[in-house]
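Fold description:
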Amino acid sequence: MDLVEPYHEFFSITIANTDELREEVFRLRYDVYCRELGWEDPSNYADELEKDAYDPVSQHCLLLHKRSGLYAGTVRMVLTHDSGVKPPIPLVDHCGNGLYDSPLHPDKLPLGSYGEISRLALRSEFRRRAAEHSDPAGHGEHLFEWTQTERRRFPHIALGLYLGASAVGLADGATGVYAMMEPRLARHLRFAGIRFEQVGEPIEFRGKRAPYYISRKTLFRYLTRPLRKLLFAIADDMQLGL
């Protein structure tokens, strides 16, 4: 399956490297986490920009849907070199003593050698089927449908963002990255050759989730050819050298 051509047709990914683009990231997260899903208390964000302590030490990716001109989603790579944040990645705070005592425990890896993919947020239009679409507050005249034709041709929007964050980590020199995800998602990713290894017990965190790790070596060894091509296309979009 060719994923590069439909990706270029429908989307582009950019690094949010300006104050204006970072505001787009935080505003999108506010819309998704506070208004749509109710995961965060909107009263904590008077400016309607959802932020946390890890944002200043992260690189943020924005996915642009070309037809509408709207940002469809965002994700970040939390970087750990020269970071004064404790703990260095949010996964450690969430999982606590549930992390396995193994060589892949973050405490046993040098800072700068790893990061964490986190804060994935997709607009409701891209999470729902067209027939299930509802009109969320705040989109107004810009409301649109992510068409079934587009879905068939590029069905991996969240995966594209995962690859975008991975490209950031790889270009930064990371030897591996962590992520919190549903065990079901980790199993599905294995079919694409993205072999995350579980590094801790599942916890209840907006549903059942577990901590995972994937090394640079494992990613490139098993990644399927279509996704390898997509990874490099996304990296080119963000002007990153892998």
